[in-house]
Amino acid sequence: MNVLITSLSRKVSLAKEVKKVLGETNQLFGMDQDPDVVGKYFVDEFFVQEDYLYQTPETLLKFCLDHEIQAIIPTRNGELPFFSKLQSFFEEHGIHIMVSKLETVNTCLDKWAFFQTLKEIATLPQTALDINRIEAEYLVVKERFGAGSDKLLQGASLRQAKSWGDHLKDPLYQTMIQGREYSVDLYFTRQGRYHGGIVRERVSVERGESKVTQSVHHPSLLRASETVGETLLFAYHVVMQWIEEEHTGDLYLIECNPRFGGASNLSLNLGLHSIGWFFQEIQGVPLSPFQRVTEEKCLVRYPEDRIFDV
Q: Which of 174, 186, 236, 268 could bond to 140 as cystine, CB 3.0-4.6 Å?
């Protein structure tokens, strides 16, 4: 089985984990718009993600068939709708894409639709498109569409929030929730059934990504995440962001990313074998059971040198 990771960028840990599961007899391909990404040194073959490849389904299909690629792992929010639309067409040609259905993906990428869909299922921060419809001492302002950390302002006063929102394309306003931040990595089968999950506390966060994260035992948060995931009918690997309010202990759902996260590698090493399960599913093999490693672990993300012969 040859596998393609798109938008490879600096996702070295993901490339290493996929390569580990594939073994030596299969090839891992990487693709990115930037020809100089670090990730290209950790795949068997790297390709520049040229625009023409995405112009028609047939163009990308031909590329995959030419390189005998049987599985694609998209890794950037912006490309998920594109790949979700292609899912059925590519499967007819024996190529499987690790992505949820289009409706699920679109709900996650539209923060207003996300709030409207899940407000009866989980506790979410008070959310509004009109700042006059929200009451809070401190506010969060963000773009309605796109990555959660994109043009984000936290802890803003009403005046600051209005000013910031005036410069956004589609501003969305939320109450600011203070407390412990958690990421939950989960795997759902292609039919949307929960198969396993790991809760991680976000100890240190930079630009929306965990730089230090530690696994924790949090059954209530795991159950809440399972309910959200099965409601949205996720498929494959998902990362959910939660905040546990510091005074009440209430769990607030912030966002869901239907893809691997920057620090998901910790959960993969604790028994959440999302990559292997995905390969098992597309080969029609029964999924191996989820067996969580009992001891807790901590992951620290840092730059590392690699020296090799040229």
A: 174
